[in-house]
Specification:
single chain; alpha+beta; two-stranded antiparallel ribbon; 25% strand
Length: 157
């Protein structure tokens, strides 16, 4: 009998098949975790917008809200203060303030829409009219020109 060194082709194929099975189990869980992390980031971003709007209103001499994300200036980081739609962590964000008279807003809302189904499956929104409670909807949540949320969803707990 010969003295064999190394692995046979069958042994290597068995190892490759085992690795493929483990990958097939792990990849969907990894994608679901990424989607959940993006959704959590979207909720926190909306809460940041709400806090910034509350601060803006408290500092405003007219007790008004910012008309858009860019109007929040230094109250949020430069990524969030960009022109609409603001893209972050797989979501697009929009901040809308209703301009009742001139450049002041008496109400505002912000919404977060997933860029595609692999980055998120839920839509989120927050407005001054709902007391800063983040709501979610499976189809869509959009800010209207009036500063209110269209298709108001279920409040997050």
């Amino acid at each position: 009998m010969k003295n064999q060194k190394g692995f046979s082709l069958v042994e290597l194929l068995v190892v490759v098949i085992i690795i493929a099975i483990i990958a097939a189990i792990a990849i969907p869980n990894l994608l679901a975790s990424r989607r959940a992390a993006n959704e959590g980031s979207a909720v926190n971003t909306l809460r940041t917008y709400h806090s910034a709007q509350a601060t803006f209103q408290a500092l405003s001499t007219t007790q008004s809200y910012a008309l858009n994300a860019a109007g929040l200036g230094t109250l949020v980081d430069t990524t969030l203060a960009g022109a609409a739609p603001v893209a972050k962590s797989g979501y697009n964000f929009a901040v809308v303030g209703e301009a009742a008279a001139g450049a002041t807003a008496s109400v505002y809302c912000a919404d977060a829409d997933p860029q595609n189904t692999s980055t998120g499956t839920r839509f989120f929104g927050i407005s001054s009219g709902n007391g800063g409670v983040v709501v979610t909807n499976a189809t869509t949540l959009d800010c209207q020109a009036s500063g209110a949320l269209a298709n108001a969803g279920t409040p997050l707990s």
